Amino acid sequence: MQDLESERISIWERISFFNKCWRHVLLFTISYSVGHHIHLCSMVPCVFGEEDAVMRNLEKESYRFIEQATAILKAIGNVINNFSSKPELSEALKDLELTHCPPGICGTEMAEEHFKVFNSALWSLIKYVLDKKMPHKYKFAFRSFTLDFKYTDVFEDDSVSSESCEVNSLSNWQKRIPTSEEEAAALKLQAVWRGTSVRKLLNSRKPGCTKENTAVKEILQTLWTSIELNFERCAVVLLREMFKKNCNSIKKFPCYEDERCKISFTDYAVTYSDQPPSTWFVVFREIFFVPEDMLIVPKMYTTIPSCRLHVIDNDTLEEIPQVFLKVAPHIYPKNKKGYTFMAEARTGDQSLAAGRWRLRLISSHSPLPFLSREAVNNIYSTKEIKEYYVPNDKCVMFRYSVKVTASHIATVQVQTSKSDVFIKLQVLDNEEEIVNVTGKGHAVIPAFNFLSNETLLSSR
């Protein structure tokens, strides 16, 4: 009885601790021969149930995160509304700094890095609100608001359109080394332009006494009107962009403690038909693109006794590491050709009834990996070859030449009647090995992109 009382106190202490963090996750594991009864007490609304019921609530931002995000965005709005009022603008800028800087970093070396993170997140918010359409006036308004002359992302679209340039005049400068007089003239022009630009920006920060300030105030007010239409969502976007930068200062926000229980996930489901005994088949194979470097945990939901998931980096053709035949949590870098998720299954001595298979991709934040096409496919064309193995000196079981009429991704699988045979399966291109796998009685290349003969000839 004393042990039960001490356990009850321990659980209550953990609940109290997580309540202070404004997000709590407790795992109850009950093992008893007769039965059990759980009585859960909480001072805040909570969800108790199976994994699916709990996980959907963990997608939401915590109350502390939303509170911090809205406070920062309100401070930004206060600066915009007082952009043409001299005493109020100074106070609003101080209030904004105290709001978006975590406690204890103002005036420290960490503050400089934090300001860069904030400016970057603010620029991302502006692009989000304007749907990535960035007229030059908004770029100027951003520089005026932040007085950040070094943030390079603002200049990414500032280059003059090639359509407005005379091709002939540009072609005269190609493959030409400028003279010392031309270099000096170019440097002088750059210095004059830089000085003019900086003076114009500084004038825009003089409240109420310059035309530049009046123009920037109107631009910022237009932007703020769009932000207010979806205020909470914009606030979350701003703070979430700051968190993505992994700056040390972000860890000092009180709401950072809630991040360990923040998840985002999406499900992809397919169905499979009846399968005869002793059969190998592909359940799922799709290409996903990763929008940014992120930690992903793939998880399968299936009733198939023997089912295994593979993930292939299409850029390197390397398979993501596995632990105990399961794909381990892994940081997926953004690449060009995406990642192929492929699930294989085998039936035993008995047939397998038709059923449903589901893949869940779990990460700490969104956006999650997205499909290379609109919907998943569960219909595959299969070509099966059965032959006898004739022993030979080179230990080669078979060798086939494949002619590809159209480029496509395929799965290659080899299985022997003798289960203890070690197999090495290779794909060669002009006798050069492209990819290989090894197995015992069974070997599979989860995904390989076979290029058509015409494509290969044109590339050569």
UniProtKB/TrEMBL annotation:
<dbReference type="InterPro" id="IPR054094">
    <property type="entry name" value="Androglobin_IV"/>
</dbReference>
<dbReference type="InterPro" id="IPR053033">
    <property type="entry name" value="Androglobin-like"/>
</dbReference>
<dbReference type="InterPro" id="IPR009050">
    <property type="entry name" value="Globin-like_sf"/>
</dbReference>
<feature type="domain" description="Globin">
    <location>
        <begin position="39"/>
        <end position="245"/>
    </location>
</feature>
<protein>
    <recommendedName>
        <fullName>Globin domain-containing protein</fullName>
    </recommendedName>
</protein>
<dbReference type="GO" id="GO:0046872">
    <property type="term" value="F:metal ion binding"/>
</dbReference>
<dbReference type="InterPro" id="IPR012292">
    <property type="entry name" value="Globin/Proto"/>
</dbReference>
<dbReference type="Pfam" id="PF22068">
    <property type="entry name" value="Androglobin_II"/>
</dbReference>
<dbReference type="Pfam" id="PF00042">
    <property type="entry name" value="Globin"/>
</dbReference>
<dbReference type="InterPro" id="IPR054093">
    <property type="entry name" value="Androglobin_II"/>
</dbReference>
<keyword id="KW-0479">Metal-binding</keyword>
<keyword id="KW-0408">Iron</keyword>
<dbReference type="GO" id="GO:0020037">
    <property type="term" value="F:heme binding"/>
</dbReference>
<dbReference type="InterPro" id="IPR000971">
    <property type="entry name" value="Globin"/>
</dbReference>
<keyword id="KW-0349">Heme</keyword>
<dbReference type="InterPro" id="IPR054095">
    <property type="entry name" value="Androglobin_V"/>
</dbReference>
<comment type="similarity">
    <text>Belongs to the globin family.</text>
</comment>
<dbReference type="Pfam" id="PF22070">
    <property type="entry name" value="Androglobin_V"/>
</dbReference>
<dbReference type="GO" id="GO:0019825">
    <property type="term" value="F:oxygen binding"/>
</dbReference>
<dbReference type="InterPro" id="IPR057249">
    <property type="entry name" value="Globin_CP_ADGB"/>
</dbReference>
<dbReference type="Pfam" id="PF22069">
    <property type="entry name" value="Androglobin_IV"/>
</dbReference>
